[in-house]
Amino acid sequence: WNGTAFAALQSIPTHGAADWAFFSLDGQSYLAVASASSDTDSVIYQWNGSAFAVFQSIPTHGAHGWKWFSLDGASYLAVANINRGGSFDIDSVLYQWNGSAFAVFQSIPTHG
Fold first, then answer.
1. What is the 3 state secondary structure string of the chain?
2. Which has the closest alpha carbon to 82: 43, 45, 34?
3. 3-42 tens-digit pLDDT
4. Torsion region of 39: left, alpha or beta (phi above 0 gives left; psi -120 to 50 gives alpha)
5. What is the pTM of this model?
6. How many degrees, rounded to 5, is the angle at CA 71 between CA 14 and CA 45?
7. Spatial distance between the Cα atoms of 34 and 87, rounded to a whole number of angstroms
8. d(CA 63, CA 65)
9. Which of 93, 79, 92, 77 is nearest to 24 (CA)?
10. What are phi and psi of 42, to 5 degrees?
């Protein structure tokens, strides 16, 4: 915001971006992009004080959306996958924060 309008802060390369999710965790700020392109990693960026830098790549398949939440003291990031190689029968994945990165916690069978 430059006082009268939004001003570009940064350009982030994507592959069919379908959703963005911003969240704060352990005093850090993150931005996750869901890549809707089939078999293209989605990326989580971390704010470094002046820009968002790549923090972690997550294997996704036609990712359509991210949702961050906490439950019973643990932090989670869920991604909805929609398509892999033309098949809409694909797992969506729930990741859990392990203190330094997101690790697979549970795969959930979904249909597109």
1. CCCCCCCCCCCCCCCCEEEEEEEEECCEEEEEEEECCCCCCEEEEEECCCCEEEEEEECCCCEEEEEEEEECCEEEEEEEECCECCECEEEEEEEEECCCCEEEEEEEEEEC
2. 34
3. 999 999 999 988 888 899 999 999 999 999 999 887 789 9
4. left
5. 0.88
6. 20
7. 18
8. 6
9. 77
10. -95, 160
Rg, Å, the chain Cα set? 15
**Beta-bridge partner residues of 92:** 108
Distance CA 77, CA 88 (A): 21
- Which amino acid is located at 30 in the chain? Y
Q: What is the pLDDT of residues 47-71, one digit of tens each?
A: 999 999 999 999 998 898 999 999 9
CA distance linking residue 36 with residue 15, whole number of Å: 7
